[in-house]
Amino acid sequence: MRLLVVNWQDRENPQAGGAEIHLHEIFGRLAARGHEVTLLCGGWPGCAPRVELDGMQVHRVGTRYTFPLHARRAFAAHHAGRHDLLIEDINKVPLFTPRWGGPPVVGIIPHLFGGTAFQELPAPVAAVVWLAERPIPWVYRDIPFQVISRSTADDLAARGVPREAIEVIYCGIDAQGYTPAPEQRAARPLFAYLGRLKKYKRVDLIIRAFAQLQHPDATLEIAGAGDHRPALEQLVASLDLTGRVRFLGRVSEEEKRSLLRRAWCLMLTSPKEGWGITNLEAAASGTPVIASDSPGIRESVQHGETGYLVRHGDLQGLVHEMQRLASDRSLVERLGVGGRTFAETFTWERTADETEAHLTRVLTRG
Questions:
Q1: Quick one: which of 65, 10, 85, 76 has its CA closest to 364?
Q2: Strands 50-53 and 56-60, how do they pair?
Q3: What is the DSSP code string of 331-358?
Q4: Quick one: which of 159, 110, 151 has its CA closest to 351?
Q5: Largest pairwise CA distance in the chain
Q6: What pLDDT sits at residue 123?
Q7: Got the DSSP string for 5-66?
Q8: pLDDT beneath 50: ranges in the chain
Q9: What is the rounded distance in angstroms from the CA atom of residue 285 to the CA atom of residue 134?
Q10: Number of other residues whose CB lies within 10 A of the CB of residue 55
Q11: Degrees (nearest 5) of the Cα angle 166, 118, 298?
Q12: Residue 193 contacts by C-beta under 8 Å, 6 or more apart in sequence?
């Protein structure tokens, strides 16, 4: 197949996140299997306009903020008539590629923002994001979709997309890179957050719950970068936690693995995620997870077996589960074993297999 993938960013972009990991893990594998894969995406100041990454030809136009203005023009000038399928990774504002007049379109959606946009962005900008998602059922009518969780499938169906047009294909993880190492577990309770520091991620809930934890030897390490870090640092200072909470900044893959192995628990308290891939990486590392019982996230944690789900925003619920783990290391290890078993069922090879099969069916149906 000759595939054109359209996404706002590639994995080398300084702003790249989980959507880009997901894209490269799948389509890099399809490129290795002999499919011709081109990625049309945005760039950043000083980047090379064309590169090869993971066997894919990457064409960068515009920037994070101007990509929608350049994408359709670049498609018409360089890509029209050269591909069998166009796959739009809809993880920000939709580009409405069915209107481009190109090959059949497949939509990949990690998750839709909906009302959560108003928790992160100024009201006028959030309104633009919210309004941009509203036409999806009409502009993308009769378009097949791939989503990464049942929660996202339910969200799309509730918006009017036929459920039979939605294929759920779960993410994979690197179960060979993320492995348990019980001997590396911290001697004292260590809680961790790993991800972008954005307002909507609600890392403040983790910090506030940690402040109420009745375990003076416990520590919290927060890994990741984002514009909400100064506010979180102020919160830590106001709660007199400076000596017990560390901000690690952006970490390397090796540092990430080390943190997940050292931690007694990974925490994720977003109101909504596409999947929560770090939950599975923690599970693969033999580390339990405490997370909000939110769309997407609830599918990556098995309550009572790999960690605990807490009603989103329930501060006392978070404190209770954190106290439970901090007081019982054997429970940490037991949940870690269950997490490893669960994580081993999710592989990128399986995800690539299912994606390839779905795209082949779409192309065959014509």
A1: 85
A2: antiparallel
A3: HHHHHHHHHHHHHTT-BHHHHHHHHHHH
A4: 110
A5: 64
A6: 67
A7: EE-S--TTSTT--HHHHHHHHHHHHHHHTT-EEEEEE---TT--SEEEETTEEEEE-S-TTT
A8: none
A9: 39
A10: 17
A11: 45
A12: 203, 206, 220, 221, 222, 223, 224, 266, 267, 268
CA 206 from centre of chain: 19
pLDDT reported for residue 348:
93
Radius of gyration, CA atoms only, the chain = 21
**271 and 119 in contact (C-beta within 8 Å)?**
yes
Distances from the Cα of 82 to the Cα of 11, 103, 353, 363, angstroms:
24, 9, 24, 15
Q: Which amino acid, 74?
A: A
- pLDDT tens digit sequence for 305-340: 999 999 999 999 999 999 999 999 999 999 999 999
Using the structure block, give the residue that is written with the tokens 């014509």. Answer: 366
Distance of CA 68 to the CA centre of its chain: 21
* Residue 149 DSSP label: S
Candidates 129, 135, 140; CA nearest to 107 is 140
In CATH, 182-343 is 3.40.1180.10: no
| Strand pairing report for 105-109 and 166-168 | unpaired
Q: Token digits for 156?
A: 């799309």
Do residues 27 and 37 touch, judged by C-beta distance below 8 A? yes
pLDDT in tens, 95-127: 999 999 999 999 999 877 665 555 555 666 657
In which residue are the tokens 């839709």 written?
112
Token reading at 253: 């893959």
pLDDT digits (tens, 9 = 90+) for 207-232: 999 999 999 999 999 999 999 999 99
Interatomic CA distance for residues 178 and 261, integer angstroms: 9
Mean pLDDT of the chain: 92
- Classified as helix, coil or strand, 85 is strand
The residue extents of the domains of the chain are: 2-172+347-365, 182-343
Q: CATH fold of 2-172+347-365, please?
A: Rossmann fold (3.40.50)
